[in-house]
Amino acid sequence: MWWGGRGQSFNIAPQKEQPEMGLSGPKSEAGNRMPEPSRYQLGGCLPGEKVLGWAPGLRKGQELELPGTLICTNFRVTFQPCGWQRNQDTPLSSEYDFALINIGRLEAVSGLSRVQLLRPGSQLKFIPEEILIHGRDFRLLRVGFGTGGLEPQAFQVTMAIVQARAQSHTQQYRGITLSKVGKVSGSRKPPIPLLETLEDWEAERKKQGASDWRVSTVNERFDIATSLSGYFWVPNRILDSEVRRAFGHFHQGRGPRLSWHHPGGSDLLRCGDFYVASDPNKEDIRAVESMLQAGHSDVILVDAMDEMPSLADTQLAHLKLRALCLPDSSVAEDKWLSALEGTRWLDYVRSCLRKASDISVLVTSRVRSVVLQERGDRDFNGLLSSLAQLLLAPEARTLLGFQSLVQREWVAAGHPFLTRLGETGAGEEAPVFPLFLDCAWQLLQQFPAEFEFSEFFLLALHDSIRVPDTLTFLRNTPWERGKKSGQFNSYTQVYTPEYAQSLAGSSVHLQLSVWDWDLRYSKEQISQFLNPGYNPECRPDSWLPRQQASFTVPGPPSSVWLFSRGALTPLNQLCPWQDGPSLRAVSSHWLPRPARPSESLADQEWGLPSHWGACPLPPGLLLPGYLGPQIRLWRRCYLRGRPEVQMGSSALTISGLQDELSCLQELLRKLTPRISPEDHCKRRDPNTILSQIR
């Protein structure tokens, strides 16, 4: 199955010529240099790609041993089966590719007991009989080498991988242009709005119905915050001069701005922590209050990091999970589940879902401004905002809606993907975005009929994080992404509205985004991105509460609250620079969530202030369960290196098949009656899907 091993659709970016790494190439016993695989044999090298070493071998760990050639280039390690050629319709896709930046662990094996862990700069101490490449995406490539004069080739291709990994951190991936892959189209636009133009932001604002908000261009030259996009939403009555001053009083210049407008009238905002060392004047304080208040009488500040794991905790849990899921894990089978809980990864998933559920209730229960605050505003603010929108907005659960959500809340909002991947050497690696994808998968498992996309789409997105074919996930900020694309000079926008017009008299090469799925996956694979149990006609039309008039008086808010540690605490003032204590020793109790997510909260008492009045929660709101077995391990993702323990086609034991049958029966019960086979065939035509995502 392609999702078991092909999730990593690695693509290579054009580079400047790289210096030779001291490898003269494998030689035969006679001392003559053996011919390198040709560009045709490699399946078509891309510009800047160079073969550094190769050796015949057998791919192991699958159903059958697969003969072929292991090839190392300055961008990837690829195993080419005998007689295999790349599909020209999807030139950037191969299930046999491992990006150098995706290699988490490299091992050389000789005999039954001789194993050497190879780090960048290591020197191989023996001729390997096989090597094991463990991907950070939980995939495994295991290749054995034959004998009969081929030992030097095995040694040299292994050392080529070691040295290529050492230099991969210095690679300046630029992303592939459409012209380089033969997909030039003068009218081609990005599959979804990339939110790099004023027009994109204005269209998105209108789609959300945020009539009290406008697009600010104050950061168009990235002189307020390079980590922010050039455009964002601010209240209509706030001038750009006030925005500029107000943002200076927040950490890294990331002031309050709209994240999502609830059709019922509430607004979800996000910002960095207050920069308390600043000394704002009264006008600046009033501007900050007006932006946080966003025209509402009630304001709730949400501490995004409260009861959430730190970045270091998240990274440690992910490393423990990856070690546990290795094929050679030393944990006994009867203690494996206990070891899984010991990683704390599932605990952190529970924390994210629980807090996102609380935020969704706050946004839904009445018209108010809910502000997510995090020191850097670039990690858990994006995670919680994205999850809250998945719980609240059916549109975000569609394929296009989810892609737009990721582009807006992660890419355009400046999530530091490259730093969190550990590619900057800053020691700040943390899998925040993979944690979000795991949470989305949990929601998909609990509400299988509410999502248009499938598990295989989430897998493809998970495996696209570390592929150097696009700039989507290989930059830390929108400013870096635009600068490295070479498509703007000195703070001009990355994409022109025409997308294909010449810039400064020269032709513009359109950069790929991660959303160009048709260049990386076949029509058959893309058709599996969609959930067959999803029926858009079952989506309720009246799930939203009646639109309520917002409060537009310029005075201070009548109610200010801090949501922290599961409780709402009233605040005396909104800004920390005002005199007087900020907290009163009065706390309202936030009651625990019922164990069954299907129960309606309309009749539940949630400890909300009585003056807010009763407001039944809409039927379209998803309230996930997060207790005990309700949170499950994403087996298709994390156990790909151990196919023998996966369910489905790999579960060839009686107990495995029984478990899979129970899951399928439960899924069938949830989906029936949802959609007929005839309707499914009509709605899931691959050509129709391609036309929707392009």
From TrEMBL:
GO biological process: phosphatidylinositol dephosphorylation
Superkingdom per UniProt: Eukaryota
Domain spans labelled Myotubularin phosphatase: 195-638
Region (Disordered): 1-35
Entry's Gene Ontology cellular component terms: cytoplasm; membrane
Signal peptide extent: none
PROSITE patterns: PPASE_MYOTUBULARIN (PS51339)
Record-linked Pfam families: 3-PAP, Myotub-related
Coiled coil (UniProt feature): none
Family that this chain belongs to: Belongs to the protein-tyrosine phosphatase family. Non-receptor class myotubularin subfamily.
Protein name in the entry: Myotubularin-related protein 11 isoform X2
Organism: Mesocricetus auratus (Golden hamster)
